[in-house]
């Protein structure tokens, strides 16, 4: 079953592949074979993959890539968070250019989200090896642990450890669906809580981190381009909104004078949709969670509890939108003669990509014959966490129908190879500076 699935996946990747894209040491066939081999680790009957963070399957996937890293001549180290670094020496010493992503997945996820970034970074090394090219500066391929966070509902775990952005108290409170604590899981994985905390970068010099990732959207499909330039990574703010009214019997309470918080919530929802466009073209707001209490057919609700996810790639406009949404909730509550309580429980700093790096990415995409397309990333990535400490950049590869975190997730091999050529051109250009 698994061999058949793997062969099918490999065959699908090669269907329609343009062999002329395999040049300058980059091999589309090698990328396809490696994507296919990884797809077999945690393969589900649906055709998707499940490799949760700090699972033995994630570790198995890392060990497979480590074998490829070592074959390519990289010196491999693993830190206490399970992050893998494969280093290639440059002509000169100094800060490294780092590229990579993650290998864990959401439950029943796709085969490109994460692995494509890791294999793209490794393929740059393979291309240099075949060309007999020595990079000007040190270069490292990285695999960050537990980016998706599906196990503990708290992601970006490896990159947070690497950058020292961890909270021991928060980690000690994490429990997975099998009632295993983070401490128990990290020990079973082969590390320890103390080693995880100590995984922050100890003196490693980093000039730049660049991540290749599938788009998780439809902009590149609309523009008919294989690769796009990420203009920034949106930082989410989660605004908790609780409308409080008066419960009553649905039949015996007159319509006049009702204090129905669910009506207020409906009005608020409509307003939330209109607000992002008033602050910027890249801002978004989504009410993704609603609880009604009591949730009875014949009862006017007492309380409506909502979470609004607010994002933008610029912190100033994101925070302005948070305040606008908060004030709108208060205005609706006043109009409906009910009470409202709001609190912002999560605020992650957005990461706009530096203009100079965007200009260098433009040179790279044009070098491989692609029209520059700028795309804001609404989803979080390891690059957002690493970007808190070091310069960071991102490239998106076209994803069919914008689907991700799903067995139907798909990027053509042609597009994947274009992504590698673009990454290679960008890294070589940065190294000249």
From TrEMBL:
<dbReference type="InterPro" id="IPR011650">
    <property type="entry name" value="Peptidase_M20_dimer"/>
</dbReference>
<dbReference type="Pfam" id="PF01546">
    <property type="entry name" value="Peptidase_M20"/>
</dbReference>
<feature type="domain" description="Peptidase M20 dimerisation">
    <location>
        <begin position="235"/>
        <end position="333"/>
    </location>
</feature>
<protein>
    <submittedName>
        <fullName>Allantoate deiminase</fullName>
        <ecNumber>3.5.3.9</ecNumber>
    </submittedName>
</protein>
<dbReference type="InterPro" id="IPR010158">
    <property type="entry name" value="Amidase_Cbmase"/>
</dbReference>
<dbReference type="InterPro" id="IPR036264">
    <property type="entry name" value="Bact_exopeptidase_dim_dom"/>
</dbReference>
<dbReference type="GO" id="GO:0047652">
    <property type="term" value="F:allantoate deiminase activity"/>
</dbReference>
<dbReference type="Pfam" id="PF07687">
    <property type="entry name" value="M20_dimer"/>
</dbReference>
<comment type="similarity">
    <text>Belongs to the peptidase M20 family.</text>
</comment>
<dbReference type="InterPro" id="IPR002933">
    <property type="entry name" value="Peptidase_M20"/>
</dbReference>
<keyword id="KW-0378">Hydrolase</keyword>
């Amino acid at each position: 079953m698994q061999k058949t699935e793997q062969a099918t996946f490999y065959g699908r990747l090669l269907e329609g592949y343009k062999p002329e894209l395999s040049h300058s040491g980059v091999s589309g066939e090698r990328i396809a074979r490696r994507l296919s081999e990884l797809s077999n680790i945690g393969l589900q009957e649906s055709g998707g993959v499940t490799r949760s963070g700090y699972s033995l399957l994630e570790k198995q996937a890392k060990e497979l890539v480590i074998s490829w890293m070592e074959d390519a001549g990289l010196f491999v180290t693993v830190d206490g968070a399970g992050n893998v670094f494969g280093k290639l020496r440059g002509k000169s010493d100094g800060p490294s250019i780092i590229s990579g992503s993650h290998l864990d997945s959401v439950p029943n996820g796709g085969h490109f989200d994460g692995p494509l970034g890791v294999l793209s970074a490794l393929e740059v090394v393979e291309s240099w090896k075949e060309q007999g090219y020595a990079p000007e500066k040190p270069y490292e391929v990285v695999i960050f642990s537990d980016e998706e966070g599906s196990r503990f509902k708290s992601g970006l775990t490896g990159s947070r450890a690497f950058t020292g952005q961890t909270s021991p108290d928060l980690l000690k409170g994490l429990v997975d669906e099998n009632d295993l604590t983070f401490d128990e899981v990290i020990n079973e994985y082969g590390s320890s809580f103390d080693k995880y905390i100590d995984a922050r970068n100890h003196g490693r010099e980093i000039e730049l981190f660049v991540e290749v990732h599938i788009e998780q959207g439809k902009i590149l499909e609309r523009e008919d381009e294989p690769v796009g330039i990420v203009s920034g990574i949106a930082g989410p703010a989660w605004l908790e909104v609780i409308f409080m009214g008066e419960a009553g019997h649905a039949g015996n309470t007159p319509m006049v004078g009702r204090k129905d918080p669910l009506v207020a919530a409906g009005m608020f929802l409509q307003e939330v949709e209109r607000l992002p466009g008033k602050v910027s073209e890249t801002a978004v707001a989504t009410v993704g969670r609603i609880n009604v209490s009591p949730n009875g057919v014949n009862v006017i609700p007492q309380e409506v509890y909502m979470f609004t996810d607010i994002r933008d790639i610029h912190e100033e406009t994101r925070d302005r939108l948070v305040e606008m949404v908060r004030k709108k909730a208060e205005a609706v509550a006043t109009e409906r003669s009910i009470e409202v309580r709001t609190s912002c429980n999560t605020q992650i700093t957005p990461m706009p990509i530096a203009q100079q790096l965007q200009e260098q990415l433009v040179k790279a995409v044009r070098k491989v014959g692609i029209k520059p397309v700028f795309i804001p990333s609404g989803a979080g990535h390891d690059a957002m966490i690493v970007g808190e400490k070091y310069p960071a950049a991102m490239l998106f590869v076209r994803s069919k129908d914008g689907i991700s975190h799903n067995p139907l997730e798909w990027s053509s091999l042609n597009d994947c190879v274009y992504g590698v050529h673009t990454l290679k051109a960008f890294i070589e250009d940065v190294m000249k500076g």
